[in-house]
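W.,

You were right to be curious about this one. When I first looked at the sequence I had no strong expectations either way, so I just let the prediction run and decided to look at it fresh. Below is the sequence, 377 residues in total, followed by the output.
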Amino acid sequence: MLTDALSKGGLNVPHLSGPLADELKAQLYPGASVGNPIDILATGTPEHLKLCLDYCENKFEDIDAVMAIFGTPGLVTMFEMYDVLHEAMQTCRKPIFPILPSINTAGAEVADFLKKGHVNFADEVTLGTMLTRIMNVPRPAANEIELFGVDVPRIRRIIDSIADDGYIPPHQVQALLRSAGIPLVDEFVSSKKEEVLAFARRAGFPVVAKVVGPVHKSDIGGVVLNIKSEQHLALEFDRMMQLPEVTAVMVQPMLKGTELFIGAKYEEKFGHVVLCGLGGIFVEVLKDVSSGLAPLSYEEAYSMIRSLRAYKIIKGTRGQKGVNEDKFAEIIVRLSTLLRFATEIKEMDINPLLATDKHVIAVDARIRIEKSGKQMQ
């Protein structure tokens, strides 16, 4: 069970074989096993335990740590056995993790062992799971913030030019994302039908049309995909402009790809929490998102992506091509840098990002700023 827990978490449990393994086995009782796990049997003696610990410490070069599982076999008291373990832990260079599961039948012996300043892991699977999680935690982020391709002065000019709190208009959203080096789909916003139709002709059909104004566009029928002709676009434009709170219509080329999501929210005393996951409706339906504190390193961004339950879809499964994980991680890092220099942004999301094996492009985004409150320095 311990071997399974360690292997599942990516830690290697090396097979022990060859002359050294044969040499150790010859010194144990018949029926003992040394293949890893090493099993000295319920009848094994303190001398056998000491011998195995010595081989792991000094002879088996593939061993970096030892987990000694020893409960009571019900034949003898365990004081002497646990004394051997205590002495080895005092002198060995390699870490030894004591797993003493018989906390009832060997309660006095375990208590004596703990009085010597040790800890006890009564469950081997809990220990194995804990170790793998610690080993897989990403390294602390470097103090340096990723600035390559991020135009900080322009970001500040855009933020400083915004007068009112709330969701900012699409052209300012685009300007901020472009300043951070985040790739965006071409789009055009207008309240004039002829201008919208002219852009669609230049971009090429099919296109996507979205209302400008309401926050939740799809809830009011404010998003139409796969518009293939000028006539269809003209009809949708007229309909959309009649919807409540609509001030204009945005049109974009129709792209294909896996929908991804990146979002962020400002938390007092912590800064921005950045989120990522599958995009579109999957964000709300699956609740499968991972998070990190801005600014993020590339290593942290990769860790966020790979911790998603849906990572197999991102990586590619059942003959389907995966998405460009490097580009996804890059956008996460760039977004976190943008947020570090624009703490006035209190909430934002890019949903969806359309991703293929070559590109990851932001299709729709919204940003809410708040300049009246106290900012984190």
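Here's what jumped out at me. The mean pLDDT is 90. And, maybe more interesting for your project: The chain has 14 helices and 13 strands.

Coffee later to discuss?

I.
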